[in-house]
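Subject: mismatched residue count in predicted assembly?

I count 848 residues in my input, but I want to confirm that the predicted structure covers every chain. Input:
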Amino acid sequence: MSKTYYLPQSNEIELFEAAAGMNLPVLIKGPTGCGKTRFIEAMGEKLGRDVYTVVCHDDLSAADLIGRHLIDENGTFWQDGPLTKAVRNGGICYLDEIIEARKDTTVVLHSLADYRRVLPIDRTGEVIEAHPDFMLVVSYNPGYQNVLKGMKPSTKQRFLSLSFTYPKPEIEKAVIIKESGVSEEIAQKLVNIAGEIRRLSDSDIQEAVSTRLLIYAAKLIVKGFDPHQACMHSIVESLSDEEDVLEVLQKLISLHFSA
Amino acid sequence: MDQKVGQFWDRYVTKKASRFYEKSQISFEDKAKSLKIFYHLLGGDKAKELHITDKRFLKTSRTLLEKFSGKGKSFFLVWQDDKALYFPATLAFFEDKKLNDMHYYWLCAMLAHVDINNNNIINENKKMANFLIHKYPGFQDFYKNAEEFLLGKYPELSYINPLSEDLIDDNSYPNPLWIYPSVSNNKTLLDFNDEEEISRQDGKKDKTEELKMKKKAEQIDDEKETDGLLLFLPESLMSLMEQVNVDRQENDSFDEDALYNAEDLDEITLGKKDANLASRIKMDLDISANSAEDYPLGKGFFRDEWDYKKEIYLKNYVCIKPQISLLVEPLPLPKRLEKMMRQIQGELDLMELDRIKIDNLPHGDEINLDSWIDYKGHQNRSNHPQRFFQSYKKKTRELATLILADISLSTESGITQDIRVIDMIKDSLMVFSESLQRLDDKFGIYAFSSIKNKKVNFHIIKNFKEKYSDLVRGRIDAIKPGYYTRLGAAIRESAKILEKQQSANKLLLILSDGKPNDVDRYDGRYGIEDTKKAIEEVKQKGIVPFCITIDIEAKEYLPYLFGRNSYAVIRDAKKLPKVVTEIYMNLTK
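Triage response: the counts match. Full output below for your records.
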């Protein structure tokens, strides 16, 4: 298996390794497509630990994380959930978009996320002590706006926080080249465009262009698409539905890639 | 007949002299929104506004025809100051419409990059034009075409040719591709900094006389001495305009005449002057007397305000006066709102469908299979709680909402002949409280208006502890439009109240009808920056701010203040009562 490519933005690898060494849970926040999930995968490989990923949603129950009784021909048996598996066997349990989960669900993490590092399972009466290699990682995107969603401070304050943003231009350029195989000149232009569009976030568009979208554009260009077209489809149209914004973004693309 | 010939000749010469292509003209109106976004894209200051520029007179060499027709003496130059960007109303330099369109974007890009404080504006323009050409291939094509075209069409512009030796001075024909310095660059602007502090009530009160009239206030620069009479000549039309030196900076001897004159004029011109003439007339402009029976609660609190120029908080600068209307009649829900409430009830019922499942009940609506299986797998079944049922219950929402209504004088204005903005705000508050009452959510209602930093009236309509009742409705009904909108202060006060609530989620809902403003410097950028700061503080406290406005131009400033997802603009103010409640439900679903 090929090794996952990850280029660090700053000292996040050292911090994550230190956290893993000290058995501290980690909270990662950052906008969509900035490399959160990729980072966890890369760290899992680096530390030699399995990654159990759970994508959270508002119907996620504690049983979905911990496990439940199931029935087969011999009667009932207990099936571990992803969290319990990671706790027993060691590994990174990664809860993606944790604020989507209901707050009463995330409370089961509390005893795992502090010095106790135990997981009590009410249904079987078992209290599992976490494997030394067990690590809890959660992530969320602080950009979403809903009054009722958000992390409980008591949950939030159990984690070491890493804040991700879009990578610096040089790093982003390198990532785009590596992922898509596009020429350095085009990659530089894509990064310039991204830098300009990101100035609009928070005021004119909901969320700025992600590194992921830039890679899509680069891939289309490598496939032989006209750069202007590629940017329109992968970047501009994905960002907004408002005509004014679309017009200006289109203008920007045509300024960079004169058609 | 003579007149007709004259008119015809004038039109002919003017047209002949005009070197614009009116057919391919692009107007600023159509481009304004896009240009603003473009300006942000290129890193421009998001607090700046975009405006149309006036003509500016320049001494230049003109063609014979231009001299004949009177054209070419004044120009629509592109410039900026620290508040706004100024564009010509239309652009039609080029025959190709696309070039004219691009011309606006070019100017916008130049505005985003040219440093207006650079003294050598010509070099700065050249440097930035070069920079843009190299950065954007799209601009490179435009610039090449534009330059060629302009050189062919305007011999006066020969200096833009890099090969040309022609010197540029102040009298050169303006280059349409360049940015020009601001008009007021060298003039000191009226600075209110050392004026109108609260502390200034020391014993000189007797000199202050109140003048409560509707006055149009205007600031002019009166460095030159004129003695109360000004001859003014706009477009050869003679007009007389009287000018009274009302000095707001000095408090020396009292001049009765000035007060007398002020009463007589339609328009009062406020000027900056350090001379002795100086009665200090305290004027509340555009203000109606507020005669409501408002009972002040205590002497008021002092709150900080953010000064964006100095980048510091002005400590205890604003005085907030909480008050409550007494002598109000309890009022049942007005008949006119009943139909709307029924409609909303339908949506409220849907909200209640959003229920939470409760497991492990000894009896309930359904059997919970999970707990049944759990029981089957339990080692000691007699120890099992044997609660196999589940039920659905209405979610109790951990949410406290404070609704803050702007009741400045501008809400007095009419939507239709019979309905004023304030009526809609009142209806909104009633429908909103009715709905929240039914949802069983915690809420408080406050309204505010201000007169400078000295008095921000903060009306308590319903606090969080009080039960919603007919009396609250009576208070809503008794709301009267007040003075101005010192939004920052009101937001800070509301945040203080919300902070004390125990709920996990806190929402600050602001109902507004326009920009923050007040009679002192709290207007334009100052007000916007203070409000932005106040909103940042609110967010830091874990409170979610949301603004609902009926100001159609709010898109110009609300994204900067609240962020993109935290505001809504209602075009039809009559829908306000329904929409406010719907927005609330959407926000908290």
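The longest helix of chain A spans residues 184-198. Marking this ticket as 'not a bug'.
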